[in-house]
Description:
The structure holds 2 protein chains of 2 kinds. Chain A is α/β, with parallel strands linked by helices. Chain A has 10 helices and 8 strands. The interface of A and B includes residues 71 and 172 of A.
Amino acid sequence: MAKQLKQIAIYGKGGIGKSTTTSNISAALAEAGYKVMQFGADPKADSTNTLRGGEYIPSVLDLLAERRRVDAYEAIFQGFGGIYCVEAGGPQPGVGCAGRGIITAVELLKQQRVFEELDLDIVIYDVLGDVVCGGFAVPVREGIAEHVFTVSSSDFMAIYAANNLFRGIERFSNSGGALLGGIIANSINTDFQREVIDDFAAHTDTPIVQYVPRSLTVTQAELSGRTTIEAAPQSAQADVYRQLARRIAEHTESKVPTPLNPPQLREWSARWADHLVAAERAEAERQVA
Amino acid sequence: MVLNLKTSSVETREQRLGTIIGWDGTASKLADESAFSRGDCGGCGTKARRVCELEGPFTQGSVCSEQMVECQAGNIRDAVLIQHSPIGCGAGQVIYNSIYRNGLAMRGLPVQNIRFISTNLRERDMVYGGAEKLAEAIRLAVERHQPKAVFIATSCASGIIGDDIESVARTAEAEFGIPIIPLHCEGFKSKHWSTGFDATQHGILRQIVRRNPEKRQDDLINVINLWGTDVFSPMLGELGLRVNYVVDMATVEELAQMSEARATVSFCYTLGTYLATALEQEFGVEQIKAPQPYGFAGTDAWLRELARVTGREAQAEDYIAREHARVKPLLDELRPKLKGLKGYVATGSAYSHGLIGVLREIGVEVDGSLVFHHDPVYDSEDPRQDSLGHLIENYGDVRHFTVGNRQQYQFYNLLQRVKPDFIIIRHNGLAPLAARLGIPAIPLGDEHHALGYQGMVNLGESILAALQHRKFHKDIAKRVSLPYKQSWLAQKDPFALARAAS
């Protein structure tokens, strides 16, 4: 009897650190004894890089471009801690339809029963930036992933992307789609950044799963083609990721978020902008005095 | 192979069976290369079911998976088919309506029009998504027709933008309380249109067939077919069995009761293999694993296997003996009239295997056939269903056995190669080309025409009838020309372009 498979999806603005976070979660889960698959759903096909010593793997769509009949296992490679790494891949920039690419890749793996046969505990979809079209929504709909987490910093564009994701989840929540597990607050090093992201979380009735500080250790590990868990297992940052992975593994209750509508979001950000300006002015005055 | 009914879309034939649409050689060589017989063709990979394929540089157009959904799901009597597509995808419904009406009349069922709705996707819907239009179409379908089920055919257009058809269907199902069944048949997904049959059957299996049947109907046999006349009821009646015709022209209830039946048969393994295999896998309804019921050899074996499974051996032997005695004198009369004639079969694949056997049985020479695709193995993976192998073993090889997706330009060279006296065809698109070459066509609109013992007599008579207007076709040939360059008309190899491109 196959065990209960847990499928989660991680979204967030491009460049926010999704792949870094996801790979470290995968690595920490593997370290804790789970059988994990990381599914990179981005045309760049670089989600699993640090799990494979900096090495790129051929994507599902690379294989499908070559031939008509593809064995899904040809696209599955094992990385750090035995993690199964898959990259959906996609077309060249400005060409074709990346959303369709994700649909195709996910479908292939589902049809070939890969998840059941590998007897996995957890599949993590590392999805690109934003829910811009039907293809990028695939992991949150049709019950593919049960829980969605978003990686966000306190920057407005990251919060904007997170809010968009919440709108997508809200849309699909009635029809059996995934629900929101919470925000992974990334690059949070100052009280101010923490206040901003906490306030957004409060407004959208969303929990913060973990605060992840910006750390040089992460950069160093990435440059060596490894996750922090692998490259600096004793570091404080590795423990942050371990704690995050534990929370995700133990997470059971997700819910429908209450996203802000566009005018509300603008108003919210304007208020923080004013607050920021006022704070800076106060700081400048203090220095003058 | 284990069929995966958990996913909403069916696996394509290319993926599942290694289906090809381009090949040329002898029938025995193709059988050798197919998984049923002896493995791969060398150098094509490690999968036994991979067969070398000739890929041409262009195609003149054929059909697509969605059209097969139209002609199956669209022909269920108390359901509605919604085509979530641009309106052009529904153009085929004009011809399907006439076939449907004819089919109903031939079966003695009340004649009605097909009931389908197109969501008429336009550029705006491609940008903004067509889900709301689809939800509205479902509501209209329910209001207008009070159907027992609604099928939704996807299309290339809805597939490309990733419209969330599943959730629209789920919401509507909860609201209206009838099965609302998405059928994923995006044309671009599979090069072979038979995948569309599978898509329909996949949806029916997932959402209509009764999950936990309370009773078994031990004398009920599912017959997977299209629109042909009812030849199965009298045949199976001899064995004390009742027929449950699916999918075309069935009611939703008739589809639901498939899980209660004793066994499943079909007139063509190309059409029936997915549904029959899944019924056996999911519900234990046995699939009859025997040659198809064509000619003496096929029909005998088919009846005997059905009798064995249902425990009616004595009745079957009695019936077989009576039919042999009845039909043999009729064939003895036909054979001298057919002697020296050469036929050419251009139909779907397993059906062609059956028809060639029938032609050989009545003494007609066949040294060429065009099948529209080839499955190197069927879903059952059972060699008893190896229809091509059965043909070769019982009726000998076919010298020019071609797999091709209905290309007019190739059909010219194919016919030149064997110069038949007539062609047999089910998908009439190629018949006008044959007519321009002076070759009459026998259009098998009724796909049960050549089936069973009587089928041999039927086909023989049809050939004689078609040859009555040979002069007419010769006259046509004299007065028309083909739109091809002289260089192509002189080409001996129908796949010259494909070979040049590879």
